[in-house]
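Incident log, structure service

09:12 report received: a user says their structure output differs between two submissions of the same chain.
09:20 pulled the input from the user's history:
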Amino acid sequence: MEFVDYYKILGLDKNTKAADIKNAYRKMARKFHPDLNPNDEKAKEKFQQINEANEVLSDAEKRKKYDKFGKDWQHADTNENAERQQRSSRNQPNYGSQGYNDNNFSDFFESMFGQQQPRGSRQRTNQFKGQDFNATLSLNFIDIFKSQKQIIDVGSKKIRITIPAGIKNGQIIKIKGQGGEGINGGPKGDLYITFTISEDSIYKRLGNDLYKTEEISLYDAILGKDVLFETINGKIKVPIKPETQNDKKIKIKGKGLPLYKQEGVFGDLYITLKIKNPENLTEEEKKLFDELSKLRN
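09:34 re-ran on a clean worker, output below:
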């Protein structure tokens, strides 16, 4: 993997304090957020780089490894483990003077555990799993209504992933074997992707249920009527009962978000009704309301 200068991405240097890293990340994240730069692939790529840089530099332990090992920082743990194993092996006592022979000692373990090592050699290769990678992927609210495929950049390679419908904000999915290369033939690491879902100006999400507010006329609220409302799946007629009160909440079953990895299953839509009073009344209309008021009293 090519070396990525996370400090340069955030416009900082190695002596930067932790608080300054946080402030720089927030400032740049707002600037390059996909919601503010729709259809701008460069801004989207920059936003991913900013998130990756912040994830490393805002973590004291990761930053320490990054400062020490540079482009190999992600393999710091495995390399240090291998070194400790080698030191431990070198420090093991030699029992040759006690009557044990190194070859016989190796033969014993070969017979017990099936070790296939050349005679006269006690060197053993230690295998370690590769470094796990972490990435952040930002989606618009509309993106989660249907499953979709995307190509993301992880280091120097491109990975095609399927994003299931109904994924939640902050949810993490694991892509097995898409992390760093293993050490000494060990398995590859995994890729963990954290999803951030932008909020919507109309719908509020709670789980897989959606909430919104709609206005209805005073006449429809009093007399009752089938009113046309917009949902994420198109328009739908909803019966309004006579004498409906302000802030009445109605439930429309199955018009919420799709459930994660449950094909054909949806949450519900809850609509809070706000009664809109008529404006610019004529004199005749005022008289009618006055007569109605007298009748009610």
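09:41 both user submissions now match this output. Likely a transient worker issue. Closing.
09:42 reviewer note: Residues 131-199 form a domain with the HSP40/DNAj peptide-binding domain fold (CATH 2.60.260.20). The chain has a mean pLDDT of 81.
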